[in-house]
């Protein structure tokens, strides 16, 4: 690959921190990325595609329903509230700096280096494991479609196709990539909304009282459901990884972050309500149905729409893989600039101006767990669920650190007030409760071992932080 990069010694690492209250942008030529090429809609597409809103109604909502029953909408409402708090914290940072380092840079400019390093490793881990998870979802829906024709393809091959195509697109052109993601998600969301609207219309325009009365719902079920519902939202902040590639990034990125969280949350709530309503009294129920929208489409008389939705979800899973590869590559590139990774990963392609080496490594790391689990015979649905659960630990860690850093950031910019302190405190507590909810009460295997996997990973990252000679030379 023809690439070039600034010398880590001779070229100073750009700072995103404001000086004496003035706003500064990361210089585009310092990272050798394209500058101001993405429209507000394309910037929003990055966050929306990382969320993969069409995937949750088909894969995650049934899992939440199995825990919450009639309280599925409540679990999503609580998850949406938590994510909205995080979005407001992130938006406060995004109004003042634009960098491809995403949330890592926000903590680096406010917290001690060790916490910034934790944020960097956690965020990279979160994006890579999410890419791996949605690749499992891609394989799952590929089989939904392939079984109609009696075909069988190795899941490892299907995973390689998804990851390989995502790496190729991510390295080609970020503008083209975001446009592809926008059209894919837009089509899928519209079709799902159409089916939900028909379901609600068919049942009559009245409130479904069992849902609002929370019939048969337990607090423990809702708490566990909230943990799963949170995975539906993770990645909403990935627009921050675009930095100066977005036009007017100090305006478009914070808007994209908040809007993607709120729009996705409203979409999920409507889908929860419609799916629970549409599956009432059916067998098999929503909690065990492998293709819920094909079933609902048949019930409302639009069978062909269900088949198109299945295809749309397949492509949506690929779009989410692509979005996570794009985001993780840019975080990895910033880590390399700051000495947390080898300097080669800081390079960008000479003509395409994309972080090619970082994107390739991120894609390969996403493929390895998918290939290993598929080779062991783990079902694609379990790959999606297991790796998705693993990714939540990384996101919650970074979200919590950003909330802790917020008062420091606001104080430096002369904007600290009671509201900012309250927002940071409430968000921090919400993230802590979410982390505790993931580990207690102790879940069944293999999920009970996931916190230890994450802690081993973070421990290795911290060891690298301490021992890396390149990091120490840049710090000096």
Structure description:
- The N terminus is likely disordered.
- The protein starts with a strand and ends with a helix.
- It has a single domain, classed as Amino acid/polyamine transporter I (Up-down Bundle).
- The protein contains 18 helices and 2 strands.
- Helices cover 70% and strands 1% of the residues.
- It has 476 residues and is mainly alpha-helical.
- It is globular and about 60 Å long.
- A two-stranded antiparallel sheet has the order 1-2.
Kindly list the characteristics that best describe this protein.
mainly alpha; Amino acid/polyamine transporter I; single chain
Summarize this, please?
This protein is mostly helical and 476 residues long. Helix content is 70%, strand content 1%.
Main sheet summary: 2 strands, antiparallel
**CA-atom Rg in angstroms:** 22 Å
Helix content: 55-70%
Per DSSP, what share of the residues sits in E-state strands of 2 or more residues? Answer: under 5%
Shape assignment: globular
Distance between the termini: 31 Å
Overall mean pLDDT stands at 84
H/E element order: EHHHHHHHHHHHHHEHHHHH
User: What's the total helix number?
Assistant: 18
The CATH class designation is Mainly Alpha
**CATH level-two architecture:** Up-down Bundle
How many DSSP-defined strands? 2
Low-confidence stretches: 1-29
- Write out the strand line-up for the largest beta sheet, numbering strands in chain order: 1-2
